[in-house]
Amino acid sequence: MRRFPNCFVTRKEKILEILLWTTVSLGAVSCAFAIINLPVSSIDVTFPFFTMAAIAVTTFLQIQLPRTKMHFTISDSVIFVALMLYGGEVGILIAIVESIYTSFKLKRKGVTIMPRTLLLNCAIAAIATQATVLVARGTIGGIQATVDSGTPTDFVTMMSVLVATQFMVNSLFVAVFAAIRSDKPIWKVWYEYCLNALLMFLTGGFLAAVVVKALHNLEPVLIGVAFVVAVVVFLTYKRHIEELRLTADQADTAERQRAEQAERHIEELQHYIREQERTSEELRESRERYRHAAFHDGLTNLPNRNLFIETLKFLLEKYKRTPNRKFAVLSLDLNRFKTINESLGHSVGDRLISHVAKRLSSLVRENDLVARFSGDSFGVILNNIQMADDAVQFARLIQRHIQKPFTIAGRQVFTDASIGISICNSNYEEAEDILRDADIAMYHAKDKTKECIVFDQAMHTRAMTLLQLETDLRCAIDRDELSVYYQPIVDLATMKLIGFEALMRWNHPQRGIIPPNEFIPVAEETGLIVPMTLWILQRSCSQMVEWQQRAPDNASLMISVNLSGKHFAHSDIVEQIRRVLLETNIKASSVKLEITESAVMENAETAIALLKNLRSLGLQLSIDDFGTGYSSLSYLHRFPIDMLKVDRSFVGTMEDGTENGEIVRTVIALGKTLGLSIVAEGIETIHQLHQLRILGCEYGQGYLFSRPVPVEEATVILDDKSRWQNIIPDNNPAVVAQNREFSRLRLAK
Ligand code: C2E
Ligand code: MG
Ligand code: MG
Fold this sequence. Notes:
61% of the residues lie in helices and 14% in strands. It is an alpha/beta fold.
């Protein structure tokens, strides 16, 4: 049996080192003892023969035990035979030689044998054989004497002692070293690895006994039988071991496959974990991106409203703790940005916004904050200001910088900003309120075309009133609070009624009648103007149909309805109006739509297209409040219109020779040149009426004839045909004709 072909290749613990060298020392003592006491006389010619036979036998008859590095050989038989034939000293030396030989043989097969391993194996072989000799001497007396003259019982007892001692000492050494190295209990290692070897020792002992007995008695038959038995036992055992090895190999293969599979699983797991880590990293990054996007504006990369509000909340809390640290909020909106966007394109608009963002950022201090809310609307937080005037000074600084030209796509673009300012104070509970107030102040600044305004409480009250108005207006249609008033339009030549203008009134449950100038802008802002317009159109057209059917000479009466510029944006507008005409069954030619001059001029090209479509319905179109909207003459002749209504601000203050009088005269002349009828609004006095008649104005409308009145009163006016005949004494055809001629001459001047 080979005990430790390669047992100390790994790092040694100290205890193993000590044990190793102790064993080697003991082996050396045994070896020395054997050499010194070698009984040279007892070695005869058979010894070389015996030695060679032993080497040959151990070379060929050798089986490795499956899953161990141990070999089953009959080397132990050789040692037993040597002990019995030549004595203990020779046995020890034979054991050492056999150990060295086997180690070299293994080395030739490619097994690494360290010198210390070789030493240890030899030492164990020597110690085990020495121990066997000593135990045999101590129990049964001499080995050779027992062989020579002992009874069969003595011989069997001796063999048992030899086998038992050799096995115990060998296996104990093996178990101790293996147990220390593997951290297992000695008995367990001994049981697992060494107990099997008992069979080898028993077989070896039996074979040795047979051989010695045969040699001793010189019985060739016994020798032959012993040899055959030994070979049969050996071959059977070899087969058994082969089978064991096969099973062990299969188990090894299965285990290797399992291990490989486990390794694959581990790799897959590691891959999966790496994937997971990568995904979570990507997730983290995308969360960061989303977080950034949630708090920043994509175009300028400035903080957005969310971050602005968060910062305001923080500052407000801080301010409550240390009220001497004031801060101001600036709400900033570019003026005419819409025009720039529409005329130069959105990409120029975007670049302008980016440039403005950079300028603003370069103006603020480190602790301040600039944010972009949307479109052309920005916010600034000014930290640590002493008083409101600091914020105003800063707002003016911003304005000066914004007013400087921006160079975009090779052209210079100009803009300026309206700025509203609110200063933090202890009344503010919510951050949003401070920003709201800055916004309100900014809208005031825009309305009043002032550059910057600091918020005051009156603005808030007004804003609240407007908000309330808006809420109430939403319910007004449903609650039937709207009504139509009619104001007569009169032919100034004949002083006869030619129609009415329908004007909306709102009978507010708490506030009473609210004038349109107050609620129409709110309706326009909220989009309510669309249903409201359709409502008044429906109502007044139905009314006009009724009036037209009332008397034959009413058939030519017209109804004028105001159309808001905000309604233009509705692509559906033409269809909506057509539907009303159909539903009310009114002749389209009896309907006139009034559109303010500013509304058509704001977007002249679109207006022209839309007016054409409306006119294709067969109705008439009139430009309202003419003179206030800076009409471009180049456009005016392209508008498909029928009538101009001179704004009442000119009529109201016209006196012969004044500038307004000249304007009225010019408008009338213009109308005539373009083939348009003229209506003068706001005629309040006979004097104005006179002048207008002299100027040849065809139609008039004003308090002089009637204020706007409810339907019942309008019906009374309608029935009273000669109502205005006597307003002016010279109302006879000859005077009128003369007046017309007079005005024609004046216009021709
Ligand atoms: P507008 O279309 O120019 O209507 C004429 C306004 O002048 C009416 O004011 C009328 O009462 C007023 N007016 C007429 N003659 C005189 C006068 O001799 N002296 C004075 N001081 N005023 C006179 P109202 O009814 O307050 O309407 C104001 C404006 O509100 C209208 O001006 C029109 O632009 C708008 N509006 C009224 N109803 C509607 C509507 O149903 N839809 C739309 N879109 N706007 C409407
Ligand atoms: Mg009007
Ligand atoms: Mg008007």
